[in-house]
Amino acid sequence: MKRIYLDNAATTPTRPEVIEAMQPYFKQSFGNPSSVHFFGKETLNAINEARYRVAQMLGTKDEEIIFVSGGTESDNLAIFGTAYANRDKGHHIITSQIEHKAVLEPCRFLEREGWRITYLPVDSAGMVDPDDVKDAITEETVLISIMNANNEIGTIQPLNEIGTIARERGVYFHTDAVQAFSHIPVKVDEINVDLLSFSGHKFYGPKGIGGLYVRKGTAISPYLFGGYQEFNLRAGTENVPGIVGIGKAVQLSMLEMDAQIVYIASLRDKLVRSLLEIEGVRLNGHSSQRLPNNINVSVDFVDSEAMVINLDFKGIAISAGSSCTAAMKGPSHVLTAIGLSYEEARSSIRITIGKDNTEEELTYFLDVFKDVVNNLRDMSPVFQERRLGSK
Ligand SMILES: *Cc1c(COP(=O)(O)O)cnc(C)c1O
Question: Which of 7, 51, 59, 385 is found 20 to 30 A from 187 (Cα to Cα)?
Fold first, then answer.
């Protein structure tokens, strides 16, 4: 069966160039980067080159990049690391209601430990209001963590304004940039952040590798203890093939990002126009401040899981709201935060386009999607009643 992958926010395929760059580090170049002999120097050099690539991408110094095991560890290190290092100042953190679980769950843990967490609301497009951030800051606030771009609805936050406020008030500012990094231009000095999380497998790099940008001078504690790797912030022998892979993925993204944004956004805009022509379909998230690859729509009277499963039968992979909600009960916390009803949230799907998707694939998707929606609506008594009622 022909398979079409439209779930690129969940993960992306690892690029062949990335796999090729990683190969030697599983074979002949296996040294421990901490070793002083040739084998160690060889892998240390490879790590340093990858660090340089990431630093270039973000406009930072090399020594401000810490490699970790992925986006989740990066978010956890940013939150627990700054909370612990600054606990003498206070026990208050500001975040938003639409963060990824990798930010929300560490915050919930700290809440149970006696910290006060402010979960800022968002507007109907999924935007945090910088004035709300300003109003929430107290003398006790040690960290603000607001994501760069949302993984479900693609909304891009006004980080520059929030970062300016954080800087004025002397509060550290972290952003989960896992969905934005290597997809849209992200320079730490333009968005005024002190800490920024990214993950390899969301931009055609390998799984199990990511990183945290830590601005020089930021008070942060490690939360894994052992060796002195990664500037004493992340103990453990480095994932050398992973680091080489993420470095290669970043290098290629830097060359291709501008063209990819134009290409992917044009596919998205065309598909959104066609989807909105279908009766009872609405776009969720911001109309312009949004990731180039993200489409999230509510489809009246159709259950999102039913759409996902029926499309999967036809070889098409999309997700219901967010991939992480797949195993959870209840509607997505992001969709309810932007004001969707339970029913609307339970009838929403996410389509995320990748650099390798073609126009033909999206045309095929649209045809199949219309069939699936029609079939499911034919089976829906509520929809039939409404249809009769409106005639
Ligand atoms: C995927 C994702 C994460 C988690 O990254 P992993 O590398 O899978 O641990 C965190 N935040 C956001 C916004 C994500 O999309």
Answer: 7
The reply to whether 114 and 67 lie within a common domain is yes
376/119 Cα distance (integer angstroms): 37
Identify whether 386 is part of a domain.
no
Query: How many A from CA of 304 to the centre of ligand 1?
Result: 22
347 and 205 both lie in a single domain: no
Residue among 85, 125, 136, 324 flagged as catalytic: 324
Residues at CB less than 6 angstroms from ligand 1 = 70-72, 75, 100, 102, 147, 151, 176, 178-179, 199, 201-202, 210
Per-residue pLDDT tens over the stretch 71-104:
999 999 999 999 999 999 999 999 999 999 999 9
Q: Do 183 and 294 reside in the same domain of the chain? A: no
CA of 277 to the centre of ligand 1 (A): 32
Say whether both 61 and 172 belong to one domain. yes
pTM, two decimal places: 0.96
Q: How many domains does the chain contain in total?
A: 2
Q: Which amino acid does the sequence have at 133?
A: V
Distance 179 CA to ligand 1 centre (A): 8
Is 107 noted as a catalytic residue in this protein? no
